[in-house]
Amino acid sequence: MFQGSGNKFAKGVSLVGSFLAAILLVALMVICVGARPACAHAQTTQDAQPSVLLIDASLGDFQSFQLHWLNESTVEVARNGSVVLLSADNPLWWGSADGQESTPAPATFLLGCDDANAPVAVTSENIAWALQKVAESGAQAKSVVVSVGCSGLQARQFAEDLSSTKQSAYANLVGMVFCGTPQNGFSVSAAYPKVALWNDVANKSGLEPSYLLPGSEMLNSLNGTRLPSVVKVLEVAGNIGDMGFGVTDGVSVEADMTLSPTVSGNVTHTQSRATLSQAVGLSKYWHPYAVSEDNQGSGAVDAGIAERLSAMESYVSSPDVREKVKNFYLSWFSDGSPVTAVSSALAIDVSGSMLERLDGVVKIDAAKSAAAGYLQAMNARLSNEHAVPADVSVVTFDTAASVVAKGCDTGSQAAVRNIRTGGDTDINLALTTALRELQGSPLCSSKHILLLSDGANTAGLTTGEILSGVVAQAAAEGIAIDTVALGDGFTESDIAFLQEISDATGGTLYESTDEFGLRRDFLRSYYSSLGLSMLDQELPSGSVDAVPVGAMDNTATSLELGVITDGATALVHVLKDGEEVDASLYDLRVSDDGLVTVLLENPAVGNYSVRLDGGDYSRAHVFAVGQLDRVNVDKTAGEAQDYSLLLLIAAAVVMVGAIAATVVFGLRKKKA
Fold first, then answer.
1. Phi, psi of 589 (to 5 degrees)
2. Threshold 0.85, pTM exceeds
C-alpha cells in the first residue's frame, strides 16, 4: 500500500515536472524568437566598455608603457610619421587591482613615438588622430584618455575644443586621467627659470616653454573653458617631498596639478608616490641648485630631495598608479559607456493631405505644435549644466525634402511654425534626408529619427525598397527610427509598413488620433530617446492627487518634468517626501502652446512626486526624466528585462527534478 502510493506520487512528480519544464522551455523559445530586432544591435558588455588610450609624454617612457601597461605582444594599429598607435590583447595594467578580475579588460591603446630623436610626438591633433583610429579599429570609440605630464595639456586642448580638431565633432571622450599634469603651469619654473628641464618637457609635448609658466595665455585659455559635462576626471599627483612651497613630484607642486572647478566638477584627486618620469632623470636637473643641509641658500633645493628624485618610480612604471586608474575605470565605466551626445532628426510629412482636419484641428497645425514642443523640451533641458550636448534638425517632405531648422532655439521654433504643405508622400526621401543630417552629428552621439506621416507612401521607392535600403542603412548605423501615424487614413498595410520601419531599427510606432495625442507622442519619442524616463502618464482633468515620480539618490544630477494639457495651462507643483519643493529651487517655463517644463538641478535625496492644479482642460500628460551621474546608452528605463537566463535556469532545475523523480520511480518499480 505504502510502496504503491510512493510509485504513484513519484510518477506524478515526474509527469508534472516534465510538463512544467516543457512549458518553461517553450516560453524561453518564444521570448528568444519574439525578441525585438533592436536586440540584434545591442552591444556586448565588453564592446560597450570605453576604450583606454594611453599617451606617452615623449620623455623616454614609451617602452616602459609597453612593458607595464600593455605587454610584449603589441600590435601596431596605425602610424603617422614617427607617431605610432599600438594595442595588445589582455593588457597587463588591468591585472593591477584585486577583486575585479571578472570584468573584462577594455580595449587598450598606446600613443607615442618609437623614434627617440623625433622632435614632437604628442599634440592635440595626434591625440584626435589616435582616437579616430581607435574607432576605426572596431573598438568602442568612446574612450578614457590617460596622459602623463604635459601631454595632458594637449589632451585638454582637444577635449575643450581649443585645437584645430574639436572633440565636439566626435563626442568620444568619457574620462580623462592626468598624471602629474601641470594644469596651472610649473610654479617651480618661476623660481628656477634656468633649469633646462622646462625646454625639454615643453618641446617634447609640442609646446613653448613660456606656455608652462603660471598665468600664461595658453593656460588661461584652458582654464577659462570647460571639459565636456560627461567627462569624469582622475588627477594623480606625485608625493615626494617639499621643495620650499608645496608637495612635489620634482617638477610640479600639488597645486599645479589641480583642475579648477570652473573647468570640471567631476574630478577625483589622489596622491601617488611617483615622479613625472623616471626615464627623464630628474635629479640631474636639480643638482646644480642643490645644497647640503647645513649650507642651504635662499631658494635652493634640498640636496636630499634632489637625490631622491630618480629613486622614485615613474607614473608609467608605478603599480600604485595603475591600480588607481583601474579603480577609477571600474567606478564609472565597467558596465558600459555613458551617453555623450544626443542627435535627432524630425521628418514631418507636409503632403497635401496634411491640410485635412482631424478632430477639429488642421493636421499640419497639430504637427507644428508637436514639433515646436519637441524643440522647447530640448531647449529647456540644455540649460542644465549636467545635460549632455544635443542637436536636432527638422526636415519637411512631400515629393521634395527641405531642412527647415537646425537646433532648438527660438529661431528654430519659429521656423517650424511657418511650415507649409505640398503634394504626395515620399518616405524614402524623408528618411534619406534625415539620415544625411545625422551624418553631420558627432561620431559617438546617440542618434534618432522621428518620422511623422498621415498616410501611405505615394511617391518614390516601394515600401520593400525602402526597408531594404535606407531603413537597413539606419539599422546598420545604430540609428533608431520612431514612426508616428497621424489620423485614421491608414490601411493595415500602411501601419504594418511604419511598424516594420520602427522594428527594424529598434524604434517605436505611435498612433496619434488628435492634436493632444500627437504632442504627447512627439514628447514621448523625445524623452524616451534619452533613456532616462521615470514617469510617462496621462492624468484626469482638474486638480489631482500627487503622482509618484520616484526616488532621487545622491547620484542624481537633475530631475526634469514636461507637462502638456488639451486646454488651459496647468499649475505644476513638485513635491519631495510629500512636502512641496520651494519654487525658487527649480526653473519652470511655460510655452505658448501650454507645455510646462520644470528643471530641478542637483535634487535633494528623497521621493519625488508631481501634482497638477487648476486649468480648464480635460486631458493632461506628465513626463519625468531623472539624470544620474552614471547613464548608459543601452540601459533605457523603458527597456524590458531579459528573463531568458532566469527561465533557462528554472527550466533546468525543473528538468533535473523531473529526471530525479523518474529515476526514483523507476528504481522503486524495479525493486517492487
1. -130, 145
2. no
